Amino acid sequence: MENNAKQEEEKGEVVVNPWEVSSTTGKIDYDKLIDKFGCQRLEETLIQRVERLTSQPPHVFLRRGVFFAHRDFNEILDAYERGEKFYLYTGRGPSSEALHLGHLVPFMFTKYLQDTFKVPLVIQLTDDEKCIWKNLSVEESQRLARENAKDIIACGFDITRTFIFSDFDFVGGAFYKNMVKVAKCVTVNKVVGIFGFTNEDIIAKISFPPVQAVPSFPSSFPHLFSGRDNLRCLIPCAIDQDPYFRMTRDVAPRLGYQKPALIESAFFPALQGETGKMSASDPNSAIYVTDSGKDIKNKVNKYAFSGGQDSIENHRKYGANLEVDIPVKYLSFFLEDDAEVEHIKKEYGAGRMLTGEVKKRLIEVLTEVVERHRRARAAVTEEMVDAFMAVRPMPNMFN
Amino acid sequence: MGFSKEQLLARLKELQIPFVTYEHPVVMTVDAQDKKNRLYIISALADTRVDLKVLSTRLGLGKGGLRMAPEETLQEILQVPLGCVTPFSVINESARLVLISRHSASSSRVEDTEQSHISLLLDQGFRAQDCCFFHPLSNDMTICKRKRMVVRLSGFDFLKEISTALKSQDLDKFLRSIGKESPYVDLEANPPVGKDQPPDLASFVPSGSTVLPDPPETASSNLPSSTNHTSLDDKSPVVTAKVAKTSSNSQKVDGKPSKAVNPSVSSFSSGQLLDEIVDKAATLVLSEITKDTINQHGEQLGLVVSNSIRKYLGSELKYLAVIYKNTAYTEGFHAGIHYQPKRL
């Protein structure tokens, strides 16, 4: 299966791996991606099941299809129904200080999962990965990891059941033992097939994948899960991280461990549209959490790609192209009220609502999100980061 | 009310920043302001060349954006006399929050209020120096930072200027305690600034969060603006560095959901937290009960209002609660790791 993936990549169609996401056609066909990767669509029935089991409305991202694919999520729900718990694992590669809303998406969803299922969470900051791939110094990547940790904490995780760790600080002991066990089960050929490494790549790259794989195994965290070797793991992530966990799921049975389950999200579009690339060097390609209300207004009005027609008459006649319209897409991520989103889509698609109005609503919504984040971020102190990152017991993590 | 030097020294003691008094040569400070009346304090070592034009471009203000600030501005905002502007002057509450309103007219309506800070730029050479000296808010004394507490007092009568020695990271600690990050900059560098290279110091341009304009009818129910809770007012444990936040005008967003965006006050005490919750609920209820809605819903109004409270406030308040919980845990954790067991 990996060989086919490589061939398709060479054909120049769609490239999706942890370091590159691109498509020659501009748009990513998620159905094809699900087939190619071998994961499953998150069906409506599963969403309803979540609602039933947790007695709470499903998260916006589930309702709007942002998190749209999974592996074994139904088994996690089965286990949960039987009274068996699980833990969450997610992470971030701290490549830059500036975080934008797209970066927050997996964390916002993970917070929802933590709150509704009342389970513990481990968050991995892959400072070593960024040191390797982005050629940062060790100190710089560690510093960025700490800075990013503050924004992650600001998403509202519960300190009594969340453990944040950076690879440079934490790798060793039981964690490293699992890394070696995983590395013993994967050949160079395999990682070349999965990740596209070459003979010219530095060995740091080739030896990195086990680092991201082993947090899926509870024995990597003896201070948290000792004696619970059968604890299952659920990994919310963006779909480009799937290769790591395909590898992990392949290896797990050979080590006698449970396979981790995954719940995967689509990509957050750049302001300029699906074909645009969100890049750290272009501040106008995304809304950053440090943007002021004025910045947000300016960026949305000036740079958000509109699906509206070029003239008012045409717009009233033909309506807007909702497929490519960015404001509507962003609203579907962040506007909680289903009825309002439906209304906007209907009116805008029919041409009765104008782009300006949609953008205005988007600015309000985004400003609120960013304000709330900024406020939470300001409450995060160095001591709080230290506490989240301390290797400490969490006695009530399942209550 | 400006800080006196005694208060400043007391504050430093509180933060457990060790200091020693000393004599030494002085540091230059440049007080600049740009077209939008934002102020910058640029502190440099005596032999660093500071070119205002270059700094201006690096800040993204164009070539002529920066000029020396007039004395009245200094007096009013930093509350120090000329020649005494130093990084420590940002301790003054007034320096942290400057309200600039255009046409502050007779009505209570404030249009387009911009809140900005004073931006502080420190020469990166300070970090390398053993000792840096700043006037602690008065010109008969100077504070110096030194890595080691070596005191060489060659006779007090020479000491026109007494100074205090601080370690470089302690200045950072101090700055953080009043809400400023360590803004070390290479003041001599002259990088090209163009389309591909955005101004590298652009992040230092003070920009507060501009709030949406205030509709006049709800002006009365808005909470007072510019209550700046500084870490100095909190009775907080000495070593915890709390970030002082700027407050924003409480606003109503026009449109169907009437939500109140409240001042971003760090709720570290349970009293403050509860006050805030009650305020938010009260403003929301007030906004929901208008003539129209009474007519519309009649007896059902109570139900409607309570539903909307649940919907809009629910998640908002959960966030507040998480912040509070995490803060309380952190303080306990910190106390725990510094706990000294009873002597046997």
Index terms:
heterodimer, A: 399 residues, alpha/beta, seven-stranded mixed beta sheet, two-stranded antiparallel sheet, 21 helices, globular, B: 344 residues, alpha+beta, five-stranded mixed beta sheet, two-stranded antiparallel ribbon, YbaK/aa-tRNA-synt-asso_dom_sf (chain B), YbaK/aa-tRNA-synth-assoc-dom (chain B), aminoacyl-tRNA deacylase activity (chain B)
Number of helices of chain B: 9
Order of helices and strands of chain B: HEEHEHHEEEHEEHEEEHHH
Radius of gyration of chain B, CA atoms, in whole angstroms: 24 Å
Dominant shape of chain A: globular
Q: What does the main sheet of chain B amount to?
A: 5 strands, mixed
Count of DSSP H/I helices of chain A: 21
Number of strands of chain B: 11
Percent helix of chain B, as a range, is 25-40%
Biggest interface and which pair forms it?
Answer: A-B, 31 and 36 residues
Could you list the spans of chain A in which at least 5 consecutive residues all have pLDDT below 50?
A: 7-11
Mean pLDDT of chain A: 92
Structural class of chain B: alpha+beta
**Unreliable residue runs of chain B:** 20-26, 93-116, 140-166, 208-267
Please give the order of strands in the largest beta sheet of chain B. 3-1-2-6-9
Major beta sheet, strand line-up of chain A: 3-4-9-8-5-6-7
Mean pLDDT across the residues of chain B is 58
Strand content of chain A: 5-15%
How would you describe this structure to a colleague?
The complex is a heterodimer of chains A (399) and B (344). By secondary structure, chain A is of the alpha/beta class. Helices cover 51% and strands 11% of the residues of chain A. Chain A is built from 21 helices and nine strands. In chain A, the strands form two sheets. Chain A has a seven-stranded mixed beta sheet with strand order 3-4-9-8-5-6-7, with helices on both faces. In chain A, strand 5, helix 6 and strand 6 (121-125) form a beta-alpha-beta unit. In chain A, helix 3 (44-54) runs parallel beside helix 5 (73-81), helix 7 crosses helix 8 and helix 18 (326-334) crosses helix 20 (355-378). The longest helix of chain A has 24 residues, at 355-378. Chain A is globular and about 65 Å long. The two termini of chain A are 41 Å apart. Chain B is an alpha+beta fold and 344 residues long. Helices cover 31% and strands 11% of the residues of chain B. Chain B has nine helices and eleven strands. In chain B, the strands form four sheets. Chain B has a five-stranded mixed beta sheet. A two-stranded antiparallel ribbon of chain B has the order 4-5. In chain B, strands 7-8 form a two-stranded antiparallel ribbon. In chain B, strand 1 (28-34) and strand 2 form a beta hairpin. Chain B is flat and about 75 Å long. Mean pLDDT of chain B is 58; it is low at 20-26, 93-116, 140-166 and 208-267. Chain A binds chain B through residues 153, 156-160, 283, 292-294, 337, 340, 361, 364, 367-368, 371-372, 374-376, 378-379, 381-384, 386-387, 390, 392, and chain B through 176, 198, 207-212, 240-243, 245, 253, 255-257, 259, 261, 264, 266-267, 316, 318-319, 322-323, 325-327, 329-331, 333-334, 337. Chain B: This is YbaK/aminoacyl-tRNA synthetase-associated domain. Chain B: GO terms for molecular function: aminoacyl-tRNA deacylase activity. Chain B: Residues 185-265 are annotated as: Disordered. Chain B: Residues 218-230 have a biased composition (Polar residues). Chain B: Belongs to the PRORSD1 family. Chain A: It holds the Pfam family tRNA-synt_1b.
